[in-house]
Amino acid sequence: MKIVYILTHPIQYQSPLIRFLTLNLKNIDFHVCYLSDHSLEEYYDVEFQKHLKWDIDLLAGTNFSFSKKIFSISEPGFLSPINPFLFFELIKLKPDFIWVHGWNNISIFSVILFKLFFKKKIFLRGESRELGSEYSIRKKLRNAIVNTLILRNIDLFFYIGKHNREFYITRKCRSDQLVFMPYCVDNSFFYDPGHRSRESRDNGLRFLMASKLSPRKQVLESVDAFLLVARQYSIKSCLTIAGDGELRAAVEARCMASNGQVVLEGFASQTKLRDLYHNADVFVLLSVNEMWGLTVNEAMASGCAILTSADVGCAIDLVEHGVNGFVEKEGQFENGFKFFFENYVSVPQMGRVSTKKIKKYSFKVCYRNLKNALKIVSESI
What we know:
- With 381 residues, the chain is an alpha/beta fold.
- Helix content is 36%, strand content 18%.
- The longest helix has 18 residues, at 363-380.
């Protein structure tokens, strides 16, 4: 049996899962077909506004190939890259099943054409969810195309969480087509065996933010809320920010005015970021229109309590309000920071709950549910 997994390019959050499945799927050839080699070498990230190069090997331990492309720009999108030979490359790969990550590339139609010709099953995993209720002709047209040309030709939908599942349900996808395939990170990489020692710290309450410094991440609003609340309590506290982007100058100005209470680390690699998680008590992500927020997974695996907004996709799945964190629903970010200052002694326990909860969002769960999905579709052939 052979599965071909189609991705636009090597992705840091996907590679560990791919390695795990490649190693553990016995008697199954798990092959990844990348539409582009974007991200393997140093590249310019528009939102970070700097050149990046990952400090981890994105291809090690996997079976892969690169589709021939005739057009590509730095950031993958619907028309980049363009892979006109993908249909024929799939013929050579001879998959029994095709797993596609998202549909935001024109190559999805080559995959659907392959399915129609050769009667193969297609699995789809993505992070789509409803964002707002505004009406527009463009949105209506896009939904019609997605529903008619794409979703109707998918056999199983691998949903990553509750919002994603609801997205498929509202588009008339059957419940027996839905398989839980959680968005997850390498929990073992981020796990902090010494996180219990945070109870004995005498250095106060440590907050951490790790994101691109862009308006959508609401970094400035978060910093201002932290500083406003911190002045009201005698508990020693600090906020560390790992990231870079268009708001860097404004963030630096706030750091300068904070008397050392807010520190900007700049862009952090995965290894450095893990150290920052382990040194934090509360992870903060108060974005708008955040489809999921995998940094929350990382922080929970590292033993952090979570301060997030209801507009972060994973909040409904991962953060239990008042148990392992605080979910801000009103846009008044001061409320969240006040919660942690007022419940200072309970923060270590919240971190332990985070570590337990995130175990349900793991590679092992993906592996088990993929095996079950293969059994289901194989019996229906």
